[in-house]
Amino acid sequence: MAKRLGIIPHLFAQPLFYGLKNLEESPFDIVEESALQLAIKLRLKELDGAFLSPIDYARDYSKYRIVPDVAAISVGESNSVLLCFKENTRQIKTLAFEPSSSSEIVLASIILAEKYNIKTQLIPVAASIDQAMMQADAYLVPQESLTTGDTAHRIKERTLKIDLVDEWFDITELPFVHGFWAARENALTPDEMKFLIECGKHGTDNLEKIMESNLSEQLIHFRYNLDEEAKISLTEFFRMAYYHGILQDIPEVKFFSQNP
Predict the structure, then answer these.
(1) Less CB within 10 Å around the terminal CB: N or C of the chain?
(2) Mean pLDDT, the chain, integer
(3) Total structural domains in the chain?
(4) What is the CATH number of the domain that holds 11?
(5) pTM for the whole structure
(6) What is the pLDDT of residues 132-153, one digit of tens each?
(7) Which residue in 16, 19, 5 sits closest to 50, CA to CA?
(8) Alpha helices of the chain — where are they, by DSSP H?
């Protein structure tokens, strides 16, 4: 029986999944869900592994290991995590967000506190950007709204917004880690991990084809190798989340061994 592996639908992660969807003889059955649903299913052992956001990993880090070498990482103005502000707003007292945006809302909270000395009331919403902006001073745009379509075009035209990945780099001089493969310690074999790593490299080699098929240039700001700089960024993100009272402790960044 094939192991069950969870993936997210967002464009930024598709290069890591390209090989899973296009190479033959995959050792996995693929389940595509929101990041929040994947975290829940992995916790309940309904999945053997999943692509998790940093915060979803942090919540259960004692149970998990990270697959080395591959992750979704961006730097600078990647247009991947945007915070939009209401017109004529002078103070940001309330921040609306889509509930599945776990790491993104933590990033927004860190940036506002660290750089602008702002602490906001968080308001979870499941609404369009126009409806959300009626309820709050700022709105964290969900990933699915940032690629193609009318909503993406309208967001692109907005002037009152900040790119939170660029703000993260301004504070730390580090890239931002959006997500990576995680599983319980004995859930994946060395061969299965090798397959995931090779799939990620296969997707990177086909980046132009993926961008053409999705009519988006967003991926030019991403890289998919989990290098030392990215590991430092991940640890710093957890440290800041702890410092600002979002996490109860600083999660250990633990990797699978690739030795048989």
Answers:
(1) N
(2) 88
(3) 2
(4) 3.40.190.10
(5) 0.91
(6) 778 899 989 876 655 555 555 5
(7) 5
(8) 14-22, 35-43, 54-59, 102-116, 129-135, 150-157, 164-172, 190-205, 207-214, 228-243
